[in-house]
Amino acid sequence: MNAYVAVTDPDWFDHLSGLHAQQPVPEVNFWMPKPWGGRFGVLADGQPLLFKLKSPRNAIAGGGFFKHYTELPLSLAWEAFGERNGAPDRVSVWRRITRLRREEPRPGDDPVIGCILLVEPFFWPGELWIHDPPGWQRNIQRGRGYDLRTGEGAGLWELVRDRLERSRAARAGETGEGPATGAIPGGYGDPLFQPRRMGQGTFRAVVTDLYHRRCAITGERALPALDAAHIRPFSEVREHSVTNGLLLRSDVHRLFDAGYVTVTPEYRVEASRAMRDDFNDGDNYLKLHGRAVWTPDSEGQRPDPEALRWHNERIYRG
C-alpha cells in the first residue's frame, strides 16, 4: 500500500502528456540517467509512482503504476519504448542523459540507464495538479515514499483519488459514457493494488530479465540479438503474459514464428526438416533438435505448456 513521489523532468512530462492527449499511452519508461543501484524495492507491482514536477511548477501532475525495473542501454530502451521515453527521438534522450550526467556527449555512446517501467499512466490538466503535497520537502532530490494507509500518505491518496475520479468523470463526459460513479475501476478507489497488464515494451523487458538475458534455446547472451517472442501471437490472446513468452535469439525467433522451430510442452526443442526442403540448408538449426530449453526459475513464470502445445499443433511444420 505504498506510493512513490518522484522528482520528474518537465520536458519528459510535457512530451508524454502531449502524446497522451492524442491517444492514450499504455506504458512509459520513467528513466534515470544512471542505474538505480540494485533492485528497485520502493514499489511492488501495481503500486503508484507519482510525477512531481521540478521548479518552478512544484506540483504532482500525474503518475503511473509500477510494473518492472530494469537497466538497459539507451539503444534498446528506445527500441522498446520509442517516444514513450519522453522525447521525440533517441538523440534528444541521449542529450538529456549526458546533460544530467554532466558528461560531454560523444557520438556512438550508448549509456546504460535505469528504467522504471510504468503502465496505465495518467496526466492531469493544470487545474488538477497537487501543489505542496503532504510532507514534501523542497530539498528532496530523487523522491519520497509514502505509506498510503496512514498519516501523510493517507492524506495524499485522498488528493490523488479525487483527481483520478474527476479526470475519469471528465473523460466519460467527453466520450458520452455518462457520469462516473463509485470507485474507479482498476483499484483507484482503494489503496489495495493489484498487478496490472503489461504493454509490449514492458513485456520485452520483463521476459528479457526473467531469462537472465540469454536465449532459451541457444544460450546466446548478446543483448541486442535477443527478442521477447510470443508463443501464441498477441493477435490471438490480446494480452502480454510472461507465460506466453520465450526469450529467443532473433534468427531463432523468426524461425519459431514461421514454424520451422518449436518447443514442446516438456521444454524440448524440435527443429523441422522442412528447412532442408525449403532452403536447401538448416543444418545448424537441426542440431538444436532435442535440446532442453532453459526456463525461468519460478514455475509460475515458465512457458505455459498449453500455449506450447498450440504452437506445436498449429504453427510447427514438423
Word description of this protein:
The chain is an alpha+beta fold. Helix content is 32%, strand content 22%. It is built from ten helices and eleven strands. It has helices at 10-22, 74-81, 90-101, 151-175, 200-210, 234-237, 250-258, 274-279, 283-286, 305-314; strands at 2-8, 27-32, 48-53, 59-73, 112-123, 130-131, 143-147, 226-230, 245-249, 261-263, 269-271. The strands form three sheets. Strands 1, 2, 3, 4, 5, 6 and 7 form a seven-stranded mixed beta sheet that branches. It has a two-stranded antiparallel sheet with strand order 8-9. The model is unreliable at 178-187 (pLDDT under 50).
Please report the total strand number as a whole number.
11
- β-strand amount: 15-25%
Radius of gyration, CA atoms, in whole angstroms: 22 Å
Q: Which of globular, elongated, flat, extended, rod-shaped describes the shape?
A: elongated
User: Which structural class fits the helix and strand makeup?
Assistant: alpha+beta
Order of helices and strands: EHEEEHHEEEHHEHEHEEHHH
The helix fraction, in percent, is 25-40%
Distance between the termini: 50 Å
Total number of helices? 10
Largest sheet: 7 strands, mixed
Note the topology:
Elements: E1 2-8, H1 10-22, E2 27-32, E3 48-53, E4 59-73, H2 74-81, H3 90-101, E5 112-123, E6 130-131, E7 143-147, H4 151-175, H5 200-210, E8 226-230, H6 234-237, E9 245-249, H7 250-258, E10 261-263, E11 269-271, H8 274-279, H9 283-286, H10 305-314
Summarize the structure.
By secondary structure, the protein is of the alpha+beta class.
